[in-house]
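Action item from last meeting closed. Structure (86 res):
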């Protein structure tokens, strides 16, 4: 299964979030758009600095992790850096 989540996050919040994602999950959010592929996760992300909107789309997730757990982990990580659902 897959899903898309949208968030509002400032530029400095996005930079701090990208650093945490790299350190905590081993994923690189380099630049304002890219692909995510690791350990059964596949998708992408885009960040628009003008609207401060971050979109994370996961097309594939590991079958043994419920989407609700993944969504909650993403949301809580982003909220630590001032982000909120869009």
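Sequence:
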């Amino acid at each position: 299964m897959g899903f898309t989540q949208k968030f509002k996050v400032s530029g400095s919040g996005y930079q701090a979030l990208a650093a945490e994602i790299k350190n905590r999950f081993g994923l690189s959010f380099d630049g304002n758009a890219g692909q995510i592929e690791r350990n059964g996760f596949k998708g992408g992300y885009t960040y628009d600095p003008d609207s401060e909107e971050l979109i994370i789309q996961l097309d594939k997730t590991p079958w043994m992790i419920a989407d609700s757990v993944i969504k909650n982990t993403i949301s809580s990580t982003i909220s630590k850096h001032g982000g909120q659902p869009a």
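Note appended to the action item: The chain is about 35% helix and 35% strand.
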